[in-house]
Design a protein that fits this description.
Length: 259
């Protein structure tokens, strides 16, 4: 079936990246399967990660990734039609089973499905705890897991920072690891640990080889604390996430109480 939305979105994104002289480096593109289902699993450090992770799959094998994303994005007047047109998969966080089943169907039909196992952006720019959904999808569909690490995207637009979509010459690394094929009987928890370990090694390599450097003391916010940056530690970031989630829950409850 012809795709009328995805190709122009990709072309537009590439045009913007070129205009900003975004220095994109794709490593491991040969790992993208030419056909068949695959669960693309990416770390999450920016609001733009789906564009860059999807670009890696497209450049590597002309594959169009169907990302799982919270359903609020699909309700937006602008992003909603685009998300539906690109056949992304809406996730209701109160009831994720329909989205899970839709993802498994897409995988069995030979699609690449994109998942952020951390569920939310990592404020610490390190890997948070992974949910097991990606491993369970791979087990239920027979599709391999395809680990992807992004680095540098946090400089463009991330949680708690001003949107800097006009920042030029930002290096962005897209690293694609070797597919992880599940064996019969593999437990999702153990597979998830194996996946996270592989992605930890990939992230460390991407950080070591990254050409970008802070321009001064005020520009160290995008570096993790263990690399000398001023990003919050994982523990502090998790506390901030919990506080934000609590505030969001209380706001919804207050809104319901007001009718």
């Amino acid at each position: 079936m012809a795709e009328f939305v995805y190709p122009p979105v990709i072309r537009t994104a590439l045009t913007v990246f070129r205009a900003l002289d975004c220095q994109i480096k794709i490593i491991g593109a040969e790992s993208i399967p030419a056909e068949g289902g695959a669960v693309l699993v990416s770390n999450h450090i920016s609001y733009l990660d789906f564009l860059f992770a999807g670009l890696g799959a497209f450049k590597g094998g002309k594959r169009k990734t169907r990302f799982m994303a919270k359903d609020d994005v699909f309700k937006h007047a602008v992003s909603g039609p685009l998300m539906r047109g690109m056949k992304h998969i809406p996730v209701d966080r109160a009831d994720g089973q329909p989205a899970y089943e839709a993802a498994v169907r897409a995988l069995r039909a030979g699609e690449v499905v994109g998942v952020f196992p951390e569920a939310t952006i990592s404020r610490s720019f390190t890997l948070k705890k992974f949910k097991t959904g990606a491993a369970r999808m791979a087990a239920d569909s027979g599709a391999p897991l395809l680990p992807v690490i992004l680095w540098g995207t946090q400089q463009l637009w991330t949680k708690g920072r001003p949107k800097t979509l006009t920042k030029r010459h930002v290096p962005v690394t897209i690293m694609i690891g070797e597919p992880i094929v599940l064996a019969p009987g593999d437990k999702p928890v153990m597979v998830t640990r194996r996946l996270r370990a592989a992605m930890t090694e990939m992230l460390e390599q991407a950080q070591r080889d990254y050409p970008g450097k802070p321009t001064g003391p005020e520009d160290t916010w995008w570096l993790p604390a263990h690399l000398g940056g001023t990003a919050p530690t994982l523990e502090v970031a998790e506390a901030e996430d919990e506080a934000e989630a609590t505030a969001r829950t209380e706001a919804r409850a207050e809104k319901r109480a007001q009718g």
